[in-house]
Amino acid sequence: MSSTVPVAYGPGAGPGPYTPAQTRIIEAALDLFAEHGVGGTSLQMIADAIGVTKAAVYHQFKTKEEIVVAAAGAELARVETAIEAAEAEPTPARARDLLVTRIVDLAVERRRMESTLLGDPVIVRFFAHHEPFRQVMGRLYRILMGDARGSDARVPAAMLTAAIGGAVMHPLVADLDDETLRSQLLHLARRFLDLPD
Amino acid sequence: MSSTVPVAYGPGAGPGPYTPAQTRIIEAALDLFAEHGVGGTSLQMIADAIGVTKAAVYHQFKTKEEIVVAAAGAELARVETAIEAAEAEPTPARARDLLVTRIVDLAVERRRMESTLLGDPVIVRFFAHHEPFRQVMGRLYRILMGDARGSDARVPAAMLTAAIGGAVMHPLVADLDDETLRSQLLHLARRFLDLPD
DNA sequence: GTCTATACGCGGATAGAC
DNA sequence: GTCTATCCGCGTATAGAC
Known about the structure:
The structure is a homodimer of 197-residue chains. Chain A is mainly α and 197 residues long. Helix content of chain A is 70%, strand content 0%. Chain A has ten helices and no strands. The longest helix of chain A has 24 residues, at 64-87. Chain A is globular and about 55 Å long. At the A-B interface, helix 7, helix 9 and helix 10 of A face helix 7, helix 9 and helix 10 of B. The structure holds a DNA duplex (18 and 18 nucleotides).
């Protein structure tokens, strides 16, 4: 896993960088969430993983939900980086192309991490009402759909993001190496969007 | 919700039909799982929903996991029905076509039910090692992929099932009526598989 | 066959000492 | 920043009433 914990929602928008103690908790939580799911991970497991007591963890984050938000936010920050790169492209077509490439890279690179987290119903339900998350996702969908807003654009955008996120943790592809999975996913995603190979 | 609780894994393969008390529990559990997730649903909530005590529920199913399996199995049985209809088709191409249509119908009809359940990490992890489930999924993938077994076939199959299941519970399409969502999903799924409209 | 009563252990959470 | 101690709710489990 990466040794850095990205802060979500762009520079200055979040609560600032985490303390070393908080960073240790987030990294341990990410590993455990990816392996056992959010609901299957107890604070005791997190505490044991870094060698402290449960109450010490609670001192850093007031609730388990805060840990979940920090962990998911760290993954979301990676998505936001991809979005910012895409938004810097000169044309909408090139922005879409770069975004799809980056999202596929991210999904494959962090396989069970990114998708287990963002697919977890606990996280899905929380972020559905979380404004900063909604804004990041709004930027992502805007790049994917262009200015179209009807069902003709929203259904394919929903399918594509679900397809990429869901495919990487699918049992059918569990034994594929990263590079094979990456190139196949990218090819199919481009085809789905009618982008040139 | 339907008033019947399908029994999973085909006639004679399961533990047989459920008692009325068990059926009430399964139906209540399906509703609650869809709304709060598996991890967010307690036996107390299920008991309250049908007006009995926690211990009464526990008497019908020895563990919460058994309730989860029964509830997920009821949804899985609907998928199996679609698979059986597809397998009865005369050609592989027509089987694929019918299966995609039925799966889209099912996903839309039961929206937050089917997908919340089958997307829940608790269920995913359990069924990953559950042989009857794996066999049903194996039949589904075989119809989708034909006899191909390489990554060229497995990645698109993984993407398509993830896309359909994930799209119906996606926030982007939450406000679409069922018929619009159904026709869009079916059109795009067919296009993804290079099937004629 | 269905239910009530009761108890145990674990996970989430808080208060206050070092 | 970490600890001990404690509380509450939930999942698990057993005994026994109707």
